[in-house]
Write a structure and sequence with these properties.
Pesterase_MJ0912, Calcineurin-like_PHP_lpxH, Putative phosphodiesterase, alpha/beta, phosphatase activity, 6-stranded mixed sheet, Metallo-depent_PP-like, about 250 residues, Purple Acid Phosphatase, chain A, domain 2
């Protein structure tokens, strides 16, 4: 089974369209959707409808902190531009779309895989996995052989051996990585809709569960179109300008 692992779409229609097309070309049969479908971008309703359609076709989907903020209110730690985008998004979703976001689980297990937005040790707290220490804590909190999470907008791979030795790896796009069976693994695909590693190309990952292979992908997309959608969205102009300009810089 080939999985497409997609996270942090952030209402970026152009990025999601490009990633879904690439995933189909890669022969992906299932989708693991790791949260933050809304926030920042100009097309939240369209993105949610695409996610709902994928779920109806068998995709696994979990809730992210921006999804929670839209339906339950923002956490105190959320930045001002993000709060503004959350408020704007809430006013543009219909009751069915809001209900879909509100009812998403914080985590989901399937076979040897755990799907969660931020981490396995406190999914509702949305703490970031910023390095090996947090990754090890997350891996120790689950029996899952493979943990897939988002929240961090940069691709990263961590592993934990049976003796408790942890390691990390910054992946190269398009290179298949064998996930050795004697280790636990935690993969962060990077953001589909708002990469923050200086490369504006959309991120996602492909996981071959039968062969135990993982590859991180970068997909160019219409960044100018995504920025134009934000600028035309009705968000306050200074916020829209900042959010739109970040896309081209990959930050």
């Amino acid at each position: 089974m080939r999985w497409a692992l997609i996270t942090d779409i952030h209402a970026n229609r152009q990025a999601l369209e490009a990633v879904l097309a690439d995933a189909r070309a890669q022969g992906c049969e299932r989708y693991g959707l790791l949260g933050d479908y809304v926030g920042y971008g100009g097309d939240p309703a369209w993105v949610i409808d695409q996610v709902r359609e994928l779920v109806a076709q068998g995709a696994v989907a979990v809730q992210g902190n921006h999804d929670s903020a839209v339906t339950q209110g923002a956490l105190p730690t959320m930045r001002e531009d993000a709060r503004t985008a959350v408020s704007w998004t809430r006013d543009r979703l219909n009751p069915e779309q809001l209900r879909f976001l509100a009812e998403l689980p914080l985590s989901r297990s399937e076979g040897e895989c755990l799907f969660v937005h931020a981490n396995a040790y406190d999914p509702e707290g949305y703490e970031y996995i910023q390095g090996r220490l947090e990754a090890m804590r997350s891996l120790q909190a689950t029996r899952a052989h493979y943990t897939f999470c988002g929240h961090m907008h940069e691709p990263m791979l961590y592993h934990l051996s049976g003796t408790g030795k942890a390691g990390d790896f910054r992946p190269v796009a398009g290179v298949e990585i064998p996930l050795l069976s004697h280790r636990q693994w935690l993969a962060i695909p990077g953001s589909c809709g708002q990469p923050r590693d200086g490369n504006p190309a959309a991120c996602y990952a492909v996981f071959d569960s039968e062969r135990g292979l993982l590859s991180f992908q970068r997909v160019p997309y219409d960044v100018e179109g995504a920025a134009a959608s934000i600028l035309a969205s009705g968000l306050p102009e200074p916020v829209a300008q900042r959010l739109a300009s970040r896309l081209a810089r990959g930050e």
